[in-house]
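4.2 Preliminary Data

To establish feasibility before requesting continued support, the project team ran the inverse folding procedure on a target of 562 residues. The structure was first converted into the token representation described in Section 3, and no sequence information of any kind was made available to the design step. The complete token record follows.
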């Protein structure tokens, strides 16, 4: 018999409504006056135990100040709860819970230092369980060190098989992702070279990053197709490895947990009471007492968690894929290091909005190195095509060509700002394909560059259309010589840029000049006025590193040391 989908929907809605009414009615029949709800939000892996404890808590019909309190447990991503506790964002309907169990106390610290300043939540909540952050890979994976002899350097692009991806949670979504970023930064150190290496790392992993708790079973299904792929290295809590090995398909590979010798972060699953309502606070305390029963401690161990002190129970120690001895851990993921683990990622993975200003003046026809090598124009073309390959589809990019051969303004505005991965018209050609075609056909126009005039015009163009959710910049590819072709002087340009640069809405100049004849000192002053960077090269092989170094400047803007 055919049943209308609308009819099915109506039945489902009616059943939900009846269920919603049934609980308060039942509690009222047991002598409750008012009925209140203790909202509990837990990370996905530990939520089943919270639900079981809530069922027992509710069965006791607890009353507080004449009202019965009914505990409800849901699974909401910790970054959404943090936002809700901090006052929320427009359009976000997440309701702040009364009890919060994220995977790590790092979330509690981030909530306390957030813009909303959630200072009311406790600073030292009790831990329900623990699980160290590990690297997961199939047993005897080629190129992987032994599980007890692994280093965090394994996650770096040059330290693993180029075909073997690294999968990690976006640091904005999980403390295991924050752990990776902190470990990489601690290994690389600080300074320009370290920032360039960090840029290389983020660009390597961001396309494979996950936006929530990772289910290892989705990567290792045991299907014929999955067997043809190169298995990734995946950063997860140890508990995820234990759970996967317990439930995996027979044809799926068993996984080993690899423990970094430098130390890792132990996720502590804090029980955070976020309400100051007396009745609900008391209910939260009583629910915590229920969770303290041995039955629930045993249930947590069955799910693959360690005890709060980091020890593995005998039952957990017998599970395959893990090393039961407590691994080396540290408590360094806090304070500035915690904030840097998120901000480094955000600045390097944030989409760009950039205007490319390309020099096609007569000077671009000269040899790059003065020894019958490629011309400056050929090197600039190579740089342009490489740059296009480095920027993701979400990048907004435009192109101006500069030469006083184009007439009074001294430039041709070849392409306005548009997202690289989408079409700029009715056809199927993307902006990336369009710019690639334009770049491959660019020729020297001749004449002077009008360098200083065009820099200021391009800067004003990007600043006037500033986008707060993107990295805004001008990329200049040039011979680096104005030779009096501009209406303004170098000093006037620098003064104008210093006046226009706004640290709250930064637009930076990233300059690549080709050939030793470039006016290097003058270009560096231009870049410094906007917290940008300037590089002069006569070696085309340096262009890739220059682009990475330029992108890494995102980490210091607007306070870059020039």
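Position-by-position output of the design step:
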């Amino acid at each position: 018999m055919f049943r209308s989908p609308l009819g099915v929907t109506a039945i489902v809605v009616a059943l939900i409504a009846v269920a919603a009414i049934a609980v308060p009615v039942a509690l009222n029949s047991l002598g409750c006056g008012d009925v209140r709800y203790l909202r509990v939000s837990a990370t996905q892996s530990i939520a089943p135990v919270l639900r079981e404890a809530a069922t027992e808590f509710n069965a006791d019909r607890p009353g507080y100040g004449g009202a019965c309190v009914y505990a409800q447990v849901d699974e909401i991503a910790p970054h959404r709860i943090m936002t809700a506790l901090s006052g929320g964002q427009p359009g976000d309907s997440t309701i702040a819970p009364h009890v919060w169990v994220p995977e790590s106390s790092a979330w509690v610290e981030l909530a306390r230092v957030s813009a909303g300043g959630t200072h009311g939540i406790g600073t030292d909540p009790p831990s329900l369980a623990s699980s160290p952050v590990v690297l997961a890979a199939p047993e005897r994976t080629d190129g992987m060190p032994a599980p007890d002899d692994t280093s965090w350097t394994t996650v770096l692009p040059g330290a693993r098989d180029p075909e073997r991806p690294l999968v990690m949670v976006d640091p904005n979504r999980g403390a295991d992702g924050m752990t990776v970023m902190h470990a990489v930064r601690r290994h690389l150190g600080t300074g320009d070279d370290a920032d360039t290496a960090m840029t290389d790392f983020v660009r390597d992993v961001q396309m494979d990053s996950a936006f929530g708790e990772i289910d290892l079973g989705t990567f290792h299904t045991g299907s014929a197709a999955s067997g043809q792929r190169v298995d990734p290295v995946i950063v997860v809590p140890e508990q995820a490895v234990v759970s996967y090995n317990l439930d995996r398909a027979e044809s799926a590979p068993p996984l080993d947990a690899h423990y970094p010798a430098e130390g890792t972060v132990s996720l502590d699953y804090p029980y955070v009471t976020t309400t100051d309502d007396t009745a609900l606070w008391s209910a939260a305390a009583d629910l915590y007492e229920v969770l303290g029963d041995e039955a629930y401690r045993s249930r947590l161990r069955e799910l693959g968690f360690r005890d709060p002190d980091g020890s593995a129970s005998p039952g957990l120690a017998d599970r395959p894929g893990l090393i039961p001895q407590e691994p080396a851990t540290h408590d360094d993921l806090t304070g500035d290091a915690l904030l840097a683990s998120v901000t480094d990622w955000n600045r390097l993975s944030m989409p760009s909005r950039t205007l490319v200003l390309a020099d096609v003046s007569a000077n671009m026809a000269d040899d790059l190195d003065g020894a019958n090598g490629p011309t400056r124009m050929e090197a600039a073309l190579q740089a342009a095509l490489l740059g296009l390959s480095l920027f993701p589809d979400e990048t907004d990019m435009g192109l101006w060509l500069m030469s006083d051969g184009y007439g009074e303004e001294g430039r041709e505005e070849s392409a306005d700002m548009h997202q690289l991965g989408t079409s700029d018209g009715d056809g199927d050609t993307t902006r990336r394909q369009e710019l690639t075609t334009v770049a491959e056909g660019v020729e020297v126009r001749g004449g002077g560059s009008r360098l200083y005039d065009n820099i200021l015009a391009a800067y004003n163009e990007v600043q006037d259309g500033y986008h707060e959710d993107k990295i805004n910049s001008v990329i200049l590819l040039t011979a680096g010589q104005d030779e009096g072709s501009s209406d303004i002087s170098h000093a006037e340009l620098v003064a104008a840029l210093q006046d226009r640069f706004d640290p709250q809405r930064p637009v930076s100049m990233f300059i690549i000049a080709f050939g030793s004849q470039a006016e290097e000192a003058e270009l560096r002053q231009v870049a410094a006025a906007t917290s940008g960077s300037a590089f002069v090269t006569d070696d085309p092989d340096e262009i890739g590193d220059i682009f990475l170094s330029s992108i890494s400047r995102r980490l210091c803007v607007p306070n870059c040391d020039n």
